[in-house]
Amino acid sequence: MTVHIHRDSWGIPSLSADSARELAYAQGRLAAQDRAWQLEMEHRRLRGTCAAVLGPPALDWDVLVRRAQLAQTARRCLLALDDATRDWVTAYTDGVNSALPEAARRAPEFVATGTPPGRWQPWVPLGVWLATHLFFAGLPAKLWRAEVTRRLGPEAVAWFTAGTPGTAGSNGWLLTGDRTATGAALLAGDPHRYAEDPGCYQQIRLVCPEFDVLGLAVPGVPGLPHFGHAGTVAWAITHAMADYQDLYRERLRRTDDGAEALGPNGWEPALHGLETVTVAGAAPVTIDVWETERGPVLFGGPEDAEAFSLRHVPRVTARLGFATLPRLLRARTVADVDAACEDWVEPVNVLLAADTEGGTLHRVAGRVPVRDPENRLRPVPAWDARHAWRPDAYEPAPRAEVAGGLAVMANERGLAAPLGVEFLPGHQHRRITELLRPRRDWTADETARVHGDTLSGGAPAMLDRLADLDGLSPAAEALAGRLLAWDRRMDADSHDAAAYAALRATCARRLAAHPTFAPLATLSTEPLGTRPEAPGPSSGRPGPRCPAPLRPWLELGPRIAFALETLLTPGVVPDLDPAALVREALEAVANEGADHGTWGERHRLALWRPLPSTNGPALDVPLAGDHDCVLATGSVPGVTDTSARCPVARYVWDLGDRTRSRWIVPLGAHGTADHPHHHDQTPLWAAGRLLPVETEPARLTHEASLAVGRDTAVPRTPAYERDVPGFGTVRLVPVDPVADLALLHGWVTEERAAFWGMVGAEPIEVLEIYEYLDALPSHHSYLVHRDGVPVGLFQTYDPAADEVGAHYPVAPGDLGVHLLLAPPRGPLRRGFTGGLIPCLIEFVFADPRVRRIVAEPDLGNGPAVERALRTGLLLGPVIELPDKRARLAFLTREAARERAPAAWERAPAAREPGAAARERGSARG
């Protein structure tokens, strides 16, 4: 089997393989080759290990994501996948692991931080997806609305009902053949997200006998989940602005044997654990991790008046919707796309699709739970049964016909209105419709005019106030006249747009300083307020402070900035005279005598880079557009004119001829700063141009052909291998927690393995245990094979890093061991343990640092104690461990040599315990 990699003149890859599974492997491999550091950071973001590399600035995110337990949720969702989808995702991560070590050696970020790349397990793409979309349901806005209600009263919430671009974005539109020059549909748009380097989308084409699809991939996730063109059908999404996550106000208390949370029926058990977060350049931080019946506690604890837990569908159902992704690749019609998205869960999107037969689709895809309307508005009390979710009950997904040959989606209060609370004001939706409706001869090339439209939708709210002002100073009169004559376009070379931005910023700052809003000025840094309706006293304790990653949603400045249109409407805010405020702002701007330059001089792209020093020079390109334009290069009036959000891709899918399709991203195809295809698309993107989609073989350059076996998994190097005459070949292979889960779960949950303490454990629990062990530098697990058949589980550990070390004086060179023999498949031959145990001893002592083996068999496990005696271990004292009474047993290197001198005369074939695990780069942040 061979995978071929071709690239066009912009370095955009095209992959071809003999099967969908091999293609998934190739996509993962290519993502690692082109975006190694980006994949490493995504991996760390979902596991909460960024601070181990980036230091204290990343600690707050790590704490939040660990408390949200996203990694555990991703594991659950992986295990719930159907076999075919799980195998497909596994092939992708196998591809990542095959290329990541070598790619990391070439990436400057790994060198600069001394970071080994983490090994990807199959659940990691699901975790990347969860971490990326954690705040997409407006979860922080519930905290904002609750505090506005408490501090200003419930009527004040309506002043800020326009959704902020911080959790929204994306335009999309569909033109049927009746409105195009070719008679075939066009599907176009541009997702708006935070600008990152490397970019959050990767242009790619995926080809195998089952499908030929091109589109925008999310690095770290297989397939093309958002935007794709499969030849006969194309699809695209925007964020629906639906509310599908809930925050619960919790009361927690510690008990003698754990913790409890106040639920509808009184105090109920809560889960509690401790996790340690490693921080580069600082001491490790130990955090509490809580979970109630509602879900993981994001912040707060028993010492606070209240805590806040998160409930969302993937955590409740172990479903994320990943089975949709391979089905989309195989889609041929809009009916196929529609069916594929029936199982989609999160995030909730508005979907457009069209096919070559004239079919169209306009629907919402995703799961919104049915619950009390109050749940959507603010955090709700966990102890009130009204706010519980109804089991397996979800709101119907709205859908609509594509009327008049045109459908537009732009995060407005439209198709998804029944499912959400805050939406964008609708400027983009109205402007796109206004531009598209008059013509019936659209082409793929001409749609760039729509993508690049700079008309400010929010400007009239302020400029209309100027027309009514009189008695102005000469300078203010001149500025007012100039702005009233302005064409209201936020063009990069416009001096008037810059002057308008200065006036708008001054108005926003003056509004934020108005006494009405003073109670909200320090909201993001103060303890959140609590309400008294919970049974029992709160002991006067303050509420918790909002975690740092959520605080931007509680900042007054941005909230004022995006509510300007409402706040400047006469009569909305008591004791506020909008005309007087605009007058004062106009006089201040006019009389300061500053030359505001052009909008493009003020409006630049601010890229997020976790390690700026390794990403080359900052981009410094003048930008047109603004947050209320179709060209949504967002600024935050009164806070900053720079753009942290922008169209992170643009696309036009032509259903008549795919080669007429167009696309572009802000940076380029490659993720390394000094690569020629890292920033090469930036000038064209900033100018509003799109690149042609290259599919003709003559226009592509062959880069590589890779031989791929049917089993795409990266082979695990044996940690030990020995041919034992008369017994067979003994091999020790490092445990892969996911790949070996079925085998491990079958062994450790049997009654015969009761001494291992996992009888009755669910697969997810066994997986978490062995992934936890895999992440520890002090513990290692191996499958023991005899002639290729797994016959046992062998574990080694550093007693100083284990509970055992607290019960005896640990000596330098001690190494603890555990051995579980597999259930026999038939009668065991005599001498089985006699042939196996010497090999295990030889393996352990192959590490010259090991001076003594330490075992601690359960006193009730007679066979294990007898085996220790037969092996030559000397019995030590009885110790009381948390889950058993055990007998210590010891075997020194000298005693082992005396017992089996012949074994020590052979050339050692073993490697030091843990070497294989270190080589495959376990993520141990």
Automatic annotation (TrEMBL):
Residues 523-546, 901-925 are annotated as: Disordered. One of its GO terms (biological process) is siderophore biosynthetic process. GO terms for molecular function: acyltransferase activity; hydrolase activity, acting on carbon-nitrogen (but not peptide) bonds, in linear amides. The keyword Hydrolase applies. Pathway: Siderophore biosynthesis; mycobactin biosynthesis. SMART domains: AlcB (SM01006). Residues 733-781 form the Acyltransferase MbtK/IucB-like conserved domain. Acyltransferase required for the direct transfer of medium- to long-chain fatty acyl moieties from a carrier protein (MbtL) on to the epsilon-amino group of lysine residue in the mycobactin core. This is Lysine N-acyltransferase MbtK. The lineage of its organism: Bacteria, Bacillati, Actinomycetota, Actinomycetes, Kitasatosporales.
